[in-house]
């Protein structure tokens, strides 16, 4: 079956612009996660959704970052007024969430964001 | 908080050599442990996992055993191939639902 998909695969933007990154999870998966992979920081957790609600936003680095999920499916990560330090690969993952502490998270291919 | 430490790379091996990538963790409670692999130009793929102490995860010739007494989850393979060249990430999943990753270890296998 189809895996996690993300779009766009690459995004180049100018400093100060807003960007939206999209994630389409595996069908039927109720949990959705956003992570960021950057050279300096490795892989960092950003936000977790269970259904349409986000019980854990602890990883969002600033109030310029926000995310939403509608219909328990597609999620959008929005970065406002982008800065050069936002350049990274943004990864989305989903899991069936039957047992949260053992669930396997399946990752999408990522969106490479470059802020000039 | 939770943390994962894995050996720094790159690890360079000849084909058919034995591989060990060390991973240790710090966590409260009873986390699940994972190894993910990232091939060049691709996303993260689950390689194997173990959900409780003494469990052994295995896949594609790779193995790792969840050792609670040493808080370790070392990755091993008896005979590596050029196609195993990739970056390997050790990770833990605790009650908070988020994966905590190690820094990644790049493996380079030469023919």
Description:
The complex is a heterodimer of chains A (116) and B (111). Helix content of chain A is 0%, strand content 51%. Chain A is mainly beta and 116 residues long. In chain A, strands 2, 4, 5, 6, 9, 10 and 11 form a 7-stranded mixed sheet that branches. A 4-stranded antiparallel sheet of chain A has the order 1-3-8-7, with no helix packed on it. The model of chain A has no long low-confidence stretch (mean pLDDT 91). By secondary structure, chain B is an all-beta fold. In chain B, strands 2, 5, 6, 10, 11 and 12 form a 6-stranded mixed sheet that branches. In chain B, strands 3-9-8-7 form a 4-stranded antiparallel sheet, with no helix packed on it. In chain B, strands 1-4 form a two-stranded antiparallel sheet. Chain B starts with a strand and ends with a strand. Chain A binds chain B through residues 31, 33, 35, 42-43, 45, 48, 50, 56, 59, 91, 93, 100-110, and chain B through 30-32, 34, 36, 42-46, 49, 51, 89, 91, 93-104.
Provide tags for this entry.
heterodimer; A: mainly beta; 7-stranded mixed β-sheet; 4-stranded antiparallel β-sheet; 0% helix; 51% strand; B: mainly beta; 6-stranded mixed β-sheet; globular
How does the SSE layout of this entry go?
The complex is a heterodimer of chains A (116) and B (111).
Chain A: E1 5-7, E2 10-13, E3 19-24, E4 31-38, E5 42-50, E6 53-56, E7 65-69, E8 75-79, E9 88-95, E10 106-107, E11 111-115
Parallel strand pairs in A: 2-11
Antiparallel strand pairs in A: 1-3, 3-8, 4-5, 4-9, 5-6, 7-8, 9-10, 9-11
Chain B: E1 3-6, E2 11-14, E3 19-21, E4 23-26, E5 32-38, E6 44-50, E7 56-59, E8 62-65, E9 75-77, E10 86-93, E11 99-101, E12 105-110
Parallel strand pairs in B: 2-12
Antiparallel strand pairs in B: 1-4, 3-9, 5-6, 5-10, 7-8, 8-9, 10-11, 10-12
State the share of residues found in helices of chain A, binned by percent.
under 10%
The helix/strand series of chain A, from N terminus to C terminus, equals EEEEEEEEEEE
Radius of gyration of chain A: 13 Å
Unreliable runs of chain B? none
First and last CA, distance of chain B: 41 Å
Mean pLDDT of chain B: 94
> Distance between the terminal alpha carbons of chain A, to the nearest Å?
37 Å
